[in-house]
Design brief:
alpha+beta; Beta Polymerase, domain 2; Hydrophobic Seed Protein; 4 domains; two-stranded antiparallel sheet; 21 helices; 11 strands; binds adenosine-5'-triphosphate; binds magnesium ion; transferase; metal-binding; CCA-adding_enz_C
Length: about 400
């Protein structure tokens, strides 16, 4: 069995040698059972945070009050969390307090879904107290315990369920789904940052369509900060190359402006730039094929997404493949102003004039002429074109 890398096994070995229990838990165990490559390895232990810090020389506190200590083992960071339960949830999102407990069972009971409540020893023995293995085999997302209670405690779990539906392509178990539909309005308690993080994972999943249907049908959609009224419009744009493509399609499907989406979900600066560009490119594409200027101005990613949206909503009109888009962009005489064979200094030497705003203006005109094939991109041809135009303007 190849579960757990050297460093994470070594962390468990050290904790066991010091007389504590320690096991792998969470998403990594789930992904292992699924046959997927494991990502971050989380370890749960009976040792108290202070005791963990005694066992290892190199640790970083990651919120000791929640019981998590980061152990640096052979330069790899490994999260070690003390077995804990969560107290009452008066705000539907964070436990008022966490209590450390002695048994793994109590720790697993607080986890959201049966597939996420698996543990594994370093020898590779699966600890499956709630039928998680079978639910994974049946591709089912099922709450641990009473679903309505679990969602009332922490409303984010409802959104995690639909996110996992997209990431894993699993179905939500019937009672779990009913509890989501009954408690959907409580998603309002969850911070935008946490919803955004789940949405990003949802967009990157293998079956976003499934998640969009759940969101619309359960009523979660109307309680989110923003969601297209017609999920079907969003569904016609799946799957996505990236989360930011998801956000761009979300915007167009919902008839939202870039600002609407940016504000509602606090998008990053980069995401704001991309969806703004897609919005612009798509607005142009709706009325005519991409122009030379469009190929020059927009990144490939932006052109691809704008074309995808065009094809989703204007199926009757003539389309263009991504390969063709790529070819047209690559065939432009220049990719950016840096590719021009001349610069401001050269213009100064040709005219004998002092530098000033005029050079920027003329570089722009040359860029335009070269891009549109009115002048080849070599120094002599540009010189001829430039001096002719420059003298004509005087
Ligand atoms: P991913 O692969 O996306 O990281 P994950 O299941 O590992 O998925 P994490 O957010 O990393 O998700 O959480 C690790 C584990 O902690 C989960 O597998 C689950 O057991 C538990 N957990 C996380 N969030 C919650 C929650 N809101 N309620 C209950 N348990 C949770
Ligand atoms: Mg994880």
């Amino acid at each position: 069995n190849s579960f757990g890398t050297g460093p994470s096994r070594e962390v468990i070995r050290c904790l066991e040698a010091a007389g504590y229990e320690a096991v792998f838990v969470g998403g990594a165990v789930r992904d292992y059972v699924l046959g997927k490559p494991a990502t971050d390895m989380d370890i749960a232990t009976s040792a108290q945070p202070d005791e963990v810090k005694v066992v290892f020389s190199n640790t970083v506190d990651l919120g000791t009050e929640h019981g998590t200590v980061l152990v640096l083992m052979q330069r790899e960071p490994i999260e070690v969390t003390t077995y804990r339960t969560e107290g009452t949830y008066t705000d539907h999102r964070r436990p008022d307090e966490v209590q450390f407990v002695k048994s793994l069972r109590e720790d697993l009971l607080r986890r959201d879904f049966t597939m996420n409540a698996l543990a594994m020893t370093k020898e590779g023995e699966l600890i499956d107290l709630f039928g998680g293995k079978q639910d994974i085999a049946h591709q089912i997302i099922k709450a641990v315990g009473n679903p309505a209670n679990r969602f009332k405690e922490d409303a984010l779990r409802m959104f995690r369920a639909v996110r996992f539906a997209s990431v894993l392509g699993f179905a939500i178990e019937e009672d779990t789904y009913k509890a989501i539909a009954e408690n959907a309005q409580q998603i309002r308690y969850i911070s935008i940052e946490r919803l955004k993080a789940e949405m990003d994972k949802l967009f990157n999943g293998i079956d976003p369509e499934k998640a969009f249907r759940y969101i619309q049908d359960s009523g979660l959609g109307i309680h989110l900060p923003l969601f297209p009224i017609k999920a079907a419009r969003l569904i016609s744009t799946v799957p996505y190359e990236s989360a930011v493509e998801g956000w761009a399609c979300f915007m167009v499907a919902g008839n939202f402006s870039p600002t609407d989406v940016m504000k509602a979900y606090k998008l990053s600066k980069h995401e704001q730039m991309v969806i703004t560009a897609v919005n612009e490119a798509y607005e142009k594409r709706r009325f005519q094929p991409f122009s030379i200027g469009d190929y020059y101005t927009y990144d490939l990613q932006v052109l691809f997404t704008a074309e995808k949206l065009f094809q989703a909503y204007h199926a009757d009109k003539e389309k263009i493949s991504n390969t063709e888009i790529m070819h047209r962009k690559q065939s432009l005489p220049i990719q950016s102003v840096k590719d021009l064979k001349v610069d401001g200094k050269v213009l100064i030497s040709w005219t004998g004039l002092k530098g000033g705003p005029w050079t920027g203006k003329w570089i722009g005109l040359i860029e335009h002429a070269v891009l549109h094939g009115r002048c080849d991109n070599d120094s002599n041809t540009i010189k001829e074109w430039f001096l002719h135009e420059f003298n004509r303007e005087k």
